Amino acid sequence: MNLLTGADILISLIVGFVLCLIYFYLLWRTMSIVRKSTHPIIILFFSGALRIFLLIFIALLFAEQNMARLLLIFCVFMLTRFLLLKIMKPTFKKEFEKSEIVYHNEKPNALKSGLKRAGQAKARKKRSK
């Protein structure tokens, strides 16, 4: 059985934390590029593939064929990810409220209700004829 030393644990903690920071930085850069892009699906696909490849490659490189180190790296990565998402949740919410997904600064349901009103007006016009 291969026990982890203090140095192994420290390196695994640092690598997992740094990997998570790199992962989210690349995600942040991708989102800023996607907003200006004409082909966002292609950029999202390649960005996701690159981020996953880097995550696995670097984790395997630092694990040095030690499964306990690899597991610790990914546990720290997931814990850091969880904490970052909890901290950044209000920022993400504000960002999505002002994104292009909301049409013309209206509430998302305003478009649906506008279409419904247009349909009702069209039906009234037909009935009045």
The rounded Rg comes to 24 Å
Mean pLDDT: 80
Shape: elongated
Helix content: over 70%
Number of helices: 4
Give the class from helix and strand content and strand pairing. mainly alpha
* Strand residue content: under 5%
Q: What is the number of E strands?
A: 0
- Which segments are poorly predicted (pLDDT under 50) over 5 or more consecutive residues? 101-105
SSE arrangement, N to C: HHHH
| Total count of domains | 2
* Biggest beta sheet attributes: none
Walk me through the structure:
The chain contains 4 helices and no strands. The N and C termini lie far apart (87 Å). It has helices at 6-34, 40-63, 67-97, 108-128. The protein is elongated. With 129 residues, it is mainly alpha-helical. Helices cover 81% and strands 0% of the residues. The chain folds into 2 domains: 6-91; 99-129. Helix 1 packs parallel to helix 3.
Task: Summarize the structure in short.
The chain has helices at residues 6-34, 40-63, 67-97, 108-128. The protein has 129 residues and is mainly alpha-helical.
Secondary-structure map:
Elements: H1 6-34, H2 40-63, H3 67-97, H4 108-128
